[in-house]
Hints:
elongated; mainly alpha; single chain; 75% helix; 158 residues
Amino acid sequence: MVIDIISYTEAQYAALNEELLLEVKSAQLKKNTLDRKLQEDLETEKHRLVKNGIFDSKIWKIYKDKRQAAHDAEVETLRESLLFFLQYAAKAEQESSTPYTVDYSLTMQERYNVVKDYYMSAYDQPNARLNAFLKDSVATAYLGEWYSTLYNYLKGLV
């Protein structure tokens, strides 16, 4: 199964317990159902417009845009719910021995900056910095989808 509801790395998925993986799978299946429903609805409406001889009018574009926007809003709600669940479920499991402040009231951008600033100031050598970051099990859950962004940034400095 391709998981495209969220952008986690393989390491992040590997760190999830069975309950959390089931939540990811459930959300992905719901998204897949929404995707299929969108395609079916678009095909049905397209055939109806063709049959009535008005497919070339602006009606198709308007319908398609409105239906796509509604679909995207549903998927985004599903995605945000999953990320919220993963974030707070992982919070309960985390250790409090991190060298940086773990504050879930911060925005994702602020969390990213806290973790990035810590690693940039604590390690002078890019390789040591990246290796320490890879061993940080708290960062994978704390940063969520932003983990891969910071990983790519630190890897680019090596």
